C-alpha cells in the first residue's frame, strides 16, 4: 500500500520535529518517518554522563521555550529525551515510529519512499536524520594490533565497559575531552591525540560563552555572510561541556589531571602509533582564535555599555605543552589497551537513491535547498546559520525552508 | 586597515582562482615533484631540479636549479656545499615564509621584513651508530620569526600559525611519510 502526502520528513529528532511544526503551521499535510522512536539517537547513541553543551534557555523549538527554573543549567540525556517527547506531543507531530527508510527515489510525482512499514509518495521531502549517523573511523584502525580494543563514542557508555589499562583517545573536540576526563578519572591513564580544535571558556565575564555569542549575533551569522562557507561548515565542535558546575574543560585542565597530550594521530608503523609534530601549532591556532572571539565579545560589550553589568575582561592561560611531546607510543608495550576514535561523525545516505551527492559523499545544496526539486536538508553544521546544528538553531532554518517548500508546492501544484 | 593597497608580491587572485578551479577538477591538483642527484666525490653531490608534473601535464621550471651538498671539514669532508640537513631547514623556512607572504596578502597585511632563524638539534651518536636509542634525525626543530608588518602581534602570530597549517614541508617534517628506495 502506498500512502500519498504532500511532504515527508525523515527523522524525528529536534530538526525533524521543528520542521513538522512549521509544515503544520503552513497547513502542509505531511508525515515524519522515524527508524526508532522520537529522539532516537539521544536514547540509543549517547554515553551515560552526557549533558547538552548548550544551556537550558537555548533548548527552544518553534512554539516551545524552556519553562523550568534553571535556565543556565545543562540537560541530561533523560531530560533531552523528555523535552523532545513533550514537544512531539505538544505539536501533535504525525510521527510514524519504527519505520526505517530503505530507499528514496525521484519519480514523475515527486519522491517515492520505501520503508520497512510500507511506501509513501510525496512531492517534497525533508532530510532531517542528522549529521552524526556514522562515526568517522580512519582506515588505519585495521593496522592496530589485535590485542588493542577499539571503540567509537556511539558505543561508549561509561568507563566500566573498557578493560583496565591505558586508553588512547583520538580527537580533542567536545566528545574527546569529555571522554578523556571521565576515563582518566576512572583510573585508566589517558593519552589524548590532539588535532585542530576550537577552544572556548564555558563562562566568560560571568556569562555563558553561548550567551555572548547569541547576544552579539555570532550564532545568527548566515551562510552568505561568511568568507568561505565550506571552511565554516568543517569547523570542529567547540570544546564545551555541560555540567552542574558550569565548568570549563580544556587541555590545560586535562594536563593537570595527568592526561598525556600528543599530536594528531598520524599512523601506525609496525607496532608504533605515530603522532604529528604539529601539536604546538594546533594549540597556538586554537589559543589565538579563542582570543579573537573574546576580543569580539569585549568590543561588543563596550559598544552596548555592558562593562559595568558583567565581570572584568579575562584572558586565559595559553595551552601548556611539554617541551617535547612524544611522537610515538609502542602499542606492543601494553601501555595502551583501548583506542577510542572521537574523530567526528558523518551522515548515512545509503538509502538515498537520488543523484545529489558530490564526490566526497556530501549532499549538494544551497543552505538546505538540495540540488533536486522539492528536497530539503536540515540539521547540518552551518547549514544556513552558525547555530544550524544546535537545537535552538532548528527553528529559524525550519521556518525558512518550510517557506521555500510551501512556495515549491504552490508553484508546481 | 590602511588605504594603501597591500602588495607583498603575491597574486592572491590567481591562487584563489586556482583553488576554485581545482575543486571541480581534482585530477589537475595531482602534482609530482622531482629531483635528481649525482655523486661527485666523497660526500659531495649535486642535485638538480627542472621538470615536474602538474595540472595534468609535464611542466618545467623557468631554468634548471642546482644544489651542492657536502659535509663540513670537521667531518673530514671538503665542505663544498650545505649539509643535507641544512637543506631540509632551508626547505622548511622557505615553505613557511612563502606561506606567510600569501596569507598576509590574503588578509590585507603589508609585510616589510620577514626573517626566519632555524635550528635543528641533533645528537650525532645516532648517525655514527654509537647509541641505538639516539634518533638519527633532528631531535627537534626550532623556528624563530622576526616580522615587521602592519598588524598587531596576535595577527602576526596568526599569520605564522596559518602558514604552518598549509605548509607542505611543515607537514612532511611533522608527519610520517612512506619512502621507498629502489635500485635499478
Oligomer: heterodimer
Biggest interface goes to: A-B, 17 and 16 residues
The CATH architecture assignment of the largest domain in chain B turns out to be 2-Layer Sandwich
Q: Which word captures the global form of chain A?
A: globular
Largest sheet of chain B: 3 strands, antiparallel
Structure description:
Chain A has nine helices and 23 strands. Chain A is of the alpha/beta class. Chain A folds into two domains: 2-133 and 347-412, FAD/NAD(P)-binding domain (3-Layer(bba) Sandwich), CATH 3.50.50; 136-341, FAD/NAD(P)-binding domain (3-Layer(bba) Sandwich). Chain A has a five-stranded parallel β-sheet, covered by helices on one side. Chain A has a five-stranded parallel β-sheet with strand order 10-19-11-12-15, covered by helices on one side. The longest helix of chain A is centred in the last third of the chain and has 25 residues, at 279-303. The model of chain A has no long low-confidence stretch (mean pLDDT 95). By secondary structure, chain B is of the alpha+beta class. Chain B has two domains: 10-82, 2-Layer Sandwich (GMP Synthetase, Chain A, domain 3), CATH 3.30.300; 83-174, K homology (KH) domain (GMP Synthetase, Chain A, domain 3), CATH 3.30.300.20. Helices cover 31% and strands 28% of the residues of chain B. Chain B contains four helices and five strands. Chain B has helices at 12-24, 84-106, 153-166, 168-174, and strands at residues 36-41, 44-54, 57-69, 111-121, 140-149. A three-stranded antiparallel β-sheet of chain B has the order 1-2-3, with no helix packed on it. In chain B, strands 4-5 form a two-stranded antiparallel sheet. In chain B, strand 1 and strand 2 form a beta hairpin. In chain B, helix 2 packs across helix 3 and helix 2 (84-106) crosses helix 4 (168-174). The termini of chain B are far apart. The relative contact order of chain B is 0.13. The model of chain B has no long low-confidence stretch (mean pLDDT 94). Chain A binds chain B through residues 196, 263, 266-267, 269, 274, 276-278, 281, 284-285, 288, 291-292, 324, 359, and chain B through 26, 139-140, 154, 157-158, 161-162, 164-165, 170-171, 173-176.
Amino acid at each position: 500500500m502506498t500512502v500519498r502526502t504532500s511532504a515527508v520528513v525523515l527523522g524525528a529528532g529536534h530538526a525533524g520535529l521543528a520542521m513538522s511544526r512549521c509544515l503544520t503551521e503552513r497547513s502542509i499535510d505531511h508525515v515524519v518517518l522515524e527508524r526508532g522512536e522520537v529522539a532516537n539517537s539521544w536514547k540509543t547513541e549517547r554515553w551515560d554522563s552526557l549533558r547538552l553543551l548548550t544551556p537550558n534557555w537555548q533548548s527552544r523549538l518553534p512554539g516551545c521555550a524552556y519553562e523550568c527554573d534553571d535556565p543556565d543549567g545543562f540537560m541530561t540525556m533523560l531530560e533531552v529525551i523528555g523535552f523532545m517527547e513533550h514537544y512531539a506531543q505538544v505539536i501533535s507531530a504525525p510521527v510514524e515510529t519504527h519505520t526505517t527508510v530503505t530507499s528514496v527515489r525521484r519519480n514523475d510525482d515527486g519522491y517515492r519512499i520505501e520503508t520497512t512499514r510500507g511506501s509513501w509518495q510525496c512531492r517534497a521531502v525533508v532530510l532531517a536524520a542528522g549529521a552524526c549517523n556514522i562515526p568517522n573511523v580512519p582506515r588505519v584502525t585495521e593496522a592496530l594490533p589485535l590485542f588493542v580494543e577499539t571503540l567509537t563514542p556511539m558505543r561508549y557508555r561509561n568507563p566500566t565497559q573498557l578493560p583496565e589499562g591505558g586508553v588512547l583517545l583520538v580527537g580533542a573536540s567536545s566528545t574527546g575531552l569529555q571522554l578523556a576526563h571521565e576515563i582518566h578519572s576512572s583510573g585508566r591513564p589517558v593519552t589524548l591525540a590532539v588535532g585542530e580544535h576550537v577552544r572556548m571558556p564555558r563562562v566568560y565575564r560571568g556569562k555563558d560563552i553561548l550567551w555572548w555569542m547569541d547576544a552579539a549575533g555570532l550564532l545568527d551569522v548566515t551562510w552568505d555572510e561568511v568568507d568561505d562557507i565550506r571552511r565554516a561548515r568543517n569547523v570542529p565542535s567547540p570544546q564545551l561541556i555541560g555540567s552542574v558546575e558550569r565548568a570549563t574543560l580544556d587541555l590545560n585542565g586535562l594536563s593537570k589531571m595527568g592526561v598525556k597530550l600528543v599530536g594528531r594521530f598520524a599512523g601506525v608503523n609496525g607496532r608504533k602509533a605515530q603522532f604529528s609534530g604539529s601539536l604546538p601549532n594546533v594549540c597556538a591556532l586554537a589559543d589565538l582564535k579563542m582570543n579573537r572571539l573574546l576580543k569580539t565579545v569585549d568590543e561588543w560589550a563596550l559598544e552596548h555599555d555592558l562593562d559595568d553589568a558583567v565581570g572584568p575582561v579575562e584572558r586565559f592561560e595559553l595551552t601548556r605543552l611539554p617541551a617535547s611531546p612524544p611522537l610515538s607510543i609502542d602499542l606492543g608495550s601494553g601501555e595502551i589497551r583501548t583506542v577510542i576514535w572521537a574523530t567526528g561523525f558523518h551522515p548515512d545516505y545509503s538509502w538515498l537513491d537520488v543523484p545529489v551527492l558530490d564526490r566526497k559523499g556530501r549532499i549538494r545544496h544551497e543552505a538546505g535547498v538540495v540540488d533536486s526539486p522539492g528536497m530539503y536538508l536540515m540539521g547540518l553544521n552551518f547549514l544556513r546559520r552558525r547555530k544550524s546544528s544546535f537545537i535552538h538553531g532548528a527553528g529559524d532554518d525550519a521556518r525558512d525552508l518550510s517557506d521555500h517548500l510551501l512556495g515549491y508546492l504552490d508553484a508546481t501544484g | 586597515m590602511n588605504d594603501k593597497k597591500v602588495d607583498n608580491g603575491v597574486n592572491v587572485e590567481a591562487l584563489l582562482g586556482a583553488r576554485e578551479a581545482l575543486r571541480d577538477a581534482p585530477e589537475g591538483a595531482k602534482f609530482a615533484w622531482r629531483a635528481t642527484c649525482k655523486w661527485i666525490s666523497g660526500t659531495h653531490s649535486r642535485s638538480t631540479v627542472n621538470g615536474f608534473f602538474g595540472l595534468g601535464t609535464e611542466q618545467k621550471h623557468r631554468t634548471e636549479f642546482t644544489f651542492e651538498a657536502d659535509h663540513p671539514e670537521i667531518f673530514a669532508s671538503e665542505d663544498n656545499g650545505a649539509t643535507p640537513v641544512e637543506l631540509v631547514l632551508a626547505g622548511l623556512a622557505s615553505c613557511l615564509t612563502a606561506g606567510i607572504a600569501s596569507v598576509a596578502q590574503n588578509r590585507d597585511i603589508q609585510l616589510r621584513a620577514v626573517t626566519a632563524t632555524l635550528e635543528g638539534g641533533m645528537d650525532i651518536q645516532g648517525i655514527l651508530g654509537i647509541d641505538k636509542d639516539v634518533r638519527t634525525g633532528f631531535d627537534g626543530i626550532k623556528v624563530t620569526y622576526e616580522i615587521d608588518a602592519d598588524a598587531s602581534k596576535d595577527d602576526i602570530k596568526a599569520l605564522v600559525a596559518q602558514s604552518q597549517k598549509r605548509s607542505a614541508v611543515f607537514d612532511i617534517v611533522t608527519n610520517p611519510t612512506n619512502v621507498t628506495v629502489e635500485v635499478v
